[in-house]
Specification:
A hairpin with a 4-residue loop joins strand 6 (119-122) and strand 7 (127-131). The chain folds into two domains: 7-85, no CATH class; 89-181, Zincin-like. Helix 3 packs across helix 4 (139-152), helix 4 crosses helix 5 (160-166) and helix 4 packs across helix 6 (172-181). By secondary structure, it is α/β, with parallel strands linked by helices. The strands form two sheets. Strands 1-2-4-3 form a four-stranded mixed β-sheet, covered by helices on one side. The chain has six helices and seven strands, in the order αββββααβββααα. The chain is elongated. It binds zinc ion. Zinc ion binds next to helix 4.
């Protein structure tokens, strides 16, 4: 996985740039994007999908480094939402709950910008939130994160009883290793 293919182009001060980004997931086609510099735009960056191309509007005065940062950020967001759109979270949670004898959540959904955790659980209303970034992880890691949050519907803390429940999922240790390597355990 190299740098995005856009790197070279970004330093050219063209009003419109169209090219493909490196393909990061074999499941998805690479996203194409356009960068449009607008002199009327002062601060805000806007991105939307137009006919399969991510159109990113940035202020005309933005530096190349800032542009590169925003392009990467916006493309990552779109890639995440495309990936997570392929995963039926409620269905996956229901099937894991059945398989491992855990309660089904009343509500489970993706959230963006969860900076400190991969998942969270609100016991009061039985709601689980899963960080959309995890849609990029292998499915067995995502399943661990879901099982972890399902177990919190029974045990609110990280007690021994909690880990016994989570341990019903056979890839627990492997998945925790994967997440620790990314700097954060579930
Ligand atoms: Zn936990």
């Amino acid at each position: 996985m190299g740098e995005p293919a856009c790197q070279l182009q970004l330093f050219q001060d063209l009003p419109l740039v169209v090219h493909d980004r490196d393909q990061r997931s074999p499941e998805l086609p690479a996203l194409s994007f356009e960068v449009i510099r607008s002199s009327r735009r002062r601060k805000t960056v806007q991105a939307r999908l137009v006919n399969g191309v991510v159109e990113i509007r940035i202020p005309a005065a933005m530096s190349a480094a800032e542009e590169r940062r925003w392009v990467n950020d916006m493309l990552s967001r779109f890639e995440r939402s495309l990936r997570s759109a392929h995963i039926d979270l409620p269905e996956r949670a229901a099937s894991l709950a059945r398989r491992y004898g855990l309660p089904e959540p009343a509500n489970i959904r993706w959230v963006d910008n969860m900076t400190t955790r991969w998942g969270s659980c609100t016991i009061d209303d039985s709601t689980i939130r899963i960080c959309s970034e995890t849609a990029e992880f292998p499915r067995w890691v995502l399943d661990y994160i879901i099982v972890h949050e399902l177990a919190h519907l029974v045990e609110a803390n990280h007690s021994k009883a909690f880990w016994t429940l989570v341990g019903r999922y056979p890839k627990t240790e492997r998945a925790r290793g994967f997440l620790i390597a990314r700097g954060l355990d579930g």
